[in-house]
Write a structure and sequence with these properties.
Layout (H helix, E strand, L loop, with lengths): L5 E7 L20 E7 L7 E10 L2 H7 L16 E9 L2 H4 L5 E5 L11 E5 L4 E2 L6 H4 L4 H15 L4 E4 L5 H13 L2 E6 L5 H7 L3 E4 L5 H12 L3 E4 L4 H9 L5 E4 L14 H5 L3 E4 L2 H7 L2 H16 L7 E6 L3 H8 L6 E5 L1
Parallel strand pairs: 8-9, 8-11, 9-10, 11-12, 12-13, 14-15
Antiparallel strand pairs: 1-2, 3-4, 3-6, 3-15, 4-5, 5-7
The chain binds NADP nicotinamide-adenine-dinucleotide phosphate.
């Protein structure tokens, strides 16, 4: 296949961290990235060049281009952490072995991001994808599914009979809801919009609460009493999260894995850490990769593909935006409340 000299990409306008804590919402994309024709990157030793089929837009991408993520921005480099495509070039034995394969992948800081016609990453992080898995599922194969499995495992291993999730209409929580349904550990979902309740119940949530409704506190109290949830999987980390945590029984763990609301919570019940053995902890998939043995990672990847191929999991996609239209259309598309936004070349 002929590889062109140049490609269209959404390249970052800023370097490093912003020092701000605004959260992942964007009003306009052109504040953070430019649409530009740039040279197609060349794979260094151990790297592959991937012709993009689809990139999933995650909150982490938006935190990153805003300078609020766990590693610094690289000015001039294409953005985009995750996607699926076909390997068209490789440097080194392992990389060359992937040429012609459809792979799901993430891009590290040494690579060149997925918001482009071609992406560059390490051969070692590429996951060959089963033929019976859709591009929509493969585009988001790594970040959310592996996080869902790893965090659900926290609930399973702790012996919990139920768990609470915030931002529960997110793609990640839909995956955890299905895991709870399939393993008999009751998902308790918290959203902020009534129109999301019926769908989450269909997916397997035992209870769905709207944090904005007037009876939220009373219903929460009642559900905590009957279900006794001891794990809070929290992507919002705001006052609602803190109030939910302090309403939970003794021994409860608050696992913070996202910061969708920039407002920090006030901790009103510090005595619970002393007398009720409650704990707050964090989860970051990057650390999971560093601390999880390779064979366990391989097992988790196979489980992800099996769940998508068999229909136990589905990536719900609301909008597809063309790469060249993204500067004008992406920010608006991200206001979607029904599902993911995908970038396509
Ligand atoms: N720590 C890790 O390793 C890790 C890995 C993967 C994902 N994550 C995190 O997991 C979260 C979900 O990711 P995703 O890709 O599944 O998200 P997604 O499908 O894009 O959905 C985002 C969800 O967040 C909700 N939301 C946004 N701002 C909110 C706020 N201020 N208060 C309450 N809800 C809010 C939205 O609800 P509305 O419909 O009401 O707007 C929507 O349901 C993100 O925070 C992401 O950063 C973390």
């Amino acid at each position: 296949m002929t590889i062109p000299d140049t490609m269209y990409a959404l390249v970052q306008k800023h370097e490093g961290f912003s020092g701000k804590r605004e959260g992942p919402h964007i009003e306009r994309l052109d504040i953070y990235v430019d649409g530009a024709d740039i040279p197609v990157p060349q794979p260094a030793e151990g790297q592959v060049l991937i012709k993009m089929s689809m990139a999933s837009i995650n909150p982490s991408d938006l935190h990153y281009i805003k300078g609020e993520y766990g590693h610094p921005r690289v000015k001039g480099a294409p953005a985009g952490f995750e996607g699926v495509g076909v390997v068209v070039a490789g440097n080194g034995k392992d990389a060359e072995a992937l040429i012609g394969k459809r792979v799901a992948f993430t891009v590290q800081s040494v690579g060149s991001g997925a918001w482009a016609e071609y992406a560059l990453t390490q051969a070692a992080v590429c996951i060959p994808v089963r033929d019976d898995m859709r591009d929509e599922d493969a585009a988001g194969h790594v970040v959310n599914p592996l996080t869902a499995l790893a965090m659900f495992d926290l609930a399973r291993k702790s012996g919990a009979k139920s768990f609470i999730m915030t931002a529960a209409n997110s793609q990640l929580c839909k995956l955890m809801t299905a895991l709870g349904r399939d393993h008999g550990i009751a998902p308790i979902a918290i959203v902020r919009k009534d129109e999301q309740i019926a769908h989450l119940e269909e997916l397997g949530a035992r209870h769905v609460l709207n944090s904005q409704s007037s009876d939220f506190t009373d219903r929460l109290k009642q559900i905590v009493k009957t279900e006794e949830p001891t794990i809070l999987l929290d992507a919002v980390a705001n006052q609602v999260s803190a109030d939910v945590f302090f309403a939970m029984p003794a021994g409860a763990r608050w696992v913070v894995y996202g910061k969708l609301d920039p407002e920090p919570p006030v901790m009103r019940e510090m005595g619970q850490f002393v007398f009720m053995h409650k704990q707050i902890e964090g989860f970051w998939l990057t650390r999971w990769f560093m601390s999880t043995p390779r064979d366990e990672q391989v097992r988790a990847i196979a489980e992800v593909q099996e769940r998508f191929a068999s229909g136990k999991w589905v990536t719900e996609v609301d909008k597809r935006v063309r790469l060249r239209d993204a500067i004008d259309e992406l920010a608006g598309a991200l206001n979607s409340t029904r599902g993911k936004v995908m970038l396509i070349p």
